[in-house]
Design goal:
- The protein has 588 residues and is mainly α.
- The chain is built from 23 helices and two strands.
- Among the domains are: 266 residues, no CATH class; 70 residues, no CATH class.
- Strand 1 and strand 2 form a beta hairpin.
- The chain is elongated and about 115 Å long.
């Protein structure tokens, strides 16, 4: 009964966000404040605002959250009440971030999202990888949020207000502006899993697939892009912050794309893809132009559609096969059984991967080209070095993205022509390689409560590219198409030969986790051991010595209490004589 109530509430709340977005569409921008209090010259309180960006993000969050809630009705039945309650709270927290016109109200939604993500990632708490992934996500995002909190105070005090709409870069000193935006950027990097705080996102995959879709597509990791877009005038006023953002974004998009090229789990490939695609959005924002901001938001919207679709498709594979790992899926793909049996999932996942890869005609193609065009305009007309770096990085990332999308699609859904070679590529990884093929006759398409959201998001993954007004720079469009081919052809060649080489450095994701373990975990453990030793053998020794001294003193005094009157009188006489002698000595 409780689970049913929360399911209905979750779907209803998500639909409410869509309704609110529709009602606010076309309404004049407006701000409303409440619960204000004065602290010296500062006014601290809460405020909300409605504008085009609010409507856009509410619509995106509402649509994706509705799809996730409906999909979850059939996908998940274990601890369903707490799951739907947390997803609803998670969605409400993102909505709070979107409508906030107060840095403090935004912070509340920002932190509630972090807490909900920890609980949702660890939904299968009986699994060790789910528990460790949740703890890792919580710690790394909280580390970034420390800088975020200080950034709020620096900007608010420097500007004399904590209202977002009243932050005027011209009224803030350059040093304070740079310090405040860089501190906020630390929080953005942590929440959106950018280098060097990127490793938590792939390890969050043990959570339910609908949760992954919500986190990766429309809420938590997208909050960083939204924040910079909301405070764009403030961020773009600091050249130092924009340069740092550009460097982080370009390094992250290439790093994550290379990791995705070698990943062997469907959800892990998609996770690294999310990190890379978010970096593309940040790179567009780092240009500091309105064209760059528009391109970033356009890509955010299309990414929400096709990435939500892909994670829900991965959930179908989990639901039907039992694992989203290549090493297990390949036992089902020796005859292309998944493609033939899960036809709707195959078609919709094909659309999602095509949009992610930037295949012409799909939404991802148009939004990615908008980013390339913004970078080209900034580099060519303004002679900006950042523009050239962003242009080259996004172009190279586009080729890498096409490679891992084609690799994922071919290995999961098609029978490898060079079957023996293909099996050998995974033989050392598959603990069930010696087992008989599974009974594929038991495979069946998912129920329509799960397939309905897939179809809706698949339509969006195609149609959203035409909503923005179809204007193409044909030179850039042709160049990006060539880059897609450069990525797809090597993936096809490797698949057709049954080869899937994964360089060790890529398969181990450049050893970042091991490096972090050596740089941070090991020293912290040694420091904790030293702290225990200091507490136990130094501070504790003094405490125990004081207690022991009191015990010994009490034992000594107890020896004087014999109960013999003669002994007491003798002691008194001796004491009187001693006092008399002492008095005589002093008198002299």
């Amino acid at each position: 009964m409780i689970a049913t109530v929360w399911r209905v509430a979750g779907v209803g709340f998500s639909l409410l966000l869509i309704l609110i977005a529709g009602l606010l569409y076309g309404v004049a921008p407006e701000q409303t404040s409440f619960l204000n209090s004065s602290v010296g010259d500062l006014t601290i309180g809460f405020a909300v605002r409605t504008d085009d960006l609010t409507v856009l993000l509410l619509a995106v969050v509402g649509v994706v959250a509705t799809c996730v809630q409906v999909y979850s009705l059939s996908y998940l039945h274990e601890r369903a009440a707490s799951y739907h309650a947390l997803v609803t709270l998670f969605t409400a927290a993102m909505a709070t971030v979107v409508v906030a016109d107060s840095l403090f109200l935004l912070l509340i939604g920002w932190e509630v999202m972090g807490a909900c993500s920890y609980l949702l990632i660890s939904h299968y708490w009986e699994r060790r990888d789910a528990r460790s992934g949740a703890v890792k996500a919580f710690l790394m995002t909280r580390l970034g949020d420390v800088g975020f909190l200080f950034g709020i105070f620096v900007l608010g005090v420097g500007a004399g207000t904590f209202r977002i709409s009243e932050l005027d870069p011209a009224q803030i000193s350059p040093g304070v502006l740079t310090a405040g935006t860089l501190l906020l950027l630390v929080g953005v990097v942590g929440k959106s899993a950018q280098v060097p705080l990127q490793t938590w996102l792939p390890d969050a995959m043990p959570g339910p697939s609908p949760v992954s879709a919500l986190i990766h597509a429309a809420t938590m990791v997208a909050a960083g892009v939204f924040l910079i877009a909301r405070l764009y005038d403030v961020f773009s006023a600091s050249a130092t912050t924009m340069t740092v953002l550009a460097v982080i974004a370009c390094v992250t998009m290439l790093f994550a794309a290379l990791c995705a090229m070698a990943a062997v789990e469907v959800k892990r490939v998609l996770a690294w893809s999310t990190v890379s695609q978010l970096a593309i959005m940040f790179s567009a924002l780092s240009l500091g132009t309105q064209e760059g901001r528009h391109a970033a938001l356009f890509h955010l919207v299309t990414h929400a559609a096709f990435k939500g679709l892909l994670f829900l498709c991965a959930g179908v594979l989990l639901h039907q096969v039992g694992s989203a790992a290549f090493v297990v899926l390949r036992r089902y793909t020796r005859r292309g059984k998944l493609r033939k049996t899960l036809r709707v999932t195959f078609v919709t996942m094909t659309i999602g991967l095509a949009a992610l890869a930037g295949v012409p005609g799909f939404a991802g193609f148009f939004s990615k080209d908008t980013v390339l065009e913004a970078a080209w305009e900034h580099a060519h007309k303004d002679g900006s070095a950042i523009g050239w770096v962003v242009l080259a990085s996004v172009g190279l990332t586009a080729a890498f993205t096409a490679f891992y999308c084609a690799r994922l699609w071919l290995w999961v859904f098609f029978r490898t022509p060079a079957l023996a070679g293909a099996m050998g590529a995974f033989e050392q990884d598959d603990p069930m390689a010696d087992l008989e093929d599974p009974d594929t006759s038991k495979l069946k398409e998912a129920p329509w409560l799960m397939l309905g959201p897939l179809v809706l998001l698949a339509v969006a993954a195609i149609g959203l590219g035409y909503v923005d007004g179809l204007h193409l720079n044909w030179v850039i469009a042709l160049g990006s198409t060539v880059l897609v081919l450069f990525g797809v052809l090597p993936a096809y060649s490797l698949w057709s030969r049954g080869a899937d080489p994964r360089p060790v450095v890529l398969e181990r994701e450049f050893g970042m986790d091991r490096a972090y373990h050596g740089l941070f975990v090991v020293p912290v453990r040694w420091l904790s051991k030293l702290s225990v030793l200091g507490d136990r053998d130094v501070i504790g020794a003094y405490v125990r010595a004081v207690g022991r001294s009191g015990t010994l003193a009490s034992q000594g005094f107890r020896l004087l209490q014999t109960g013999n009157v003669q002994t007491y009188l003798t002691g008194a006489v001796v004491g009187v004589v001693a006092l008399a002698i002492l008095a005589g000595v002093i008198a002299r």
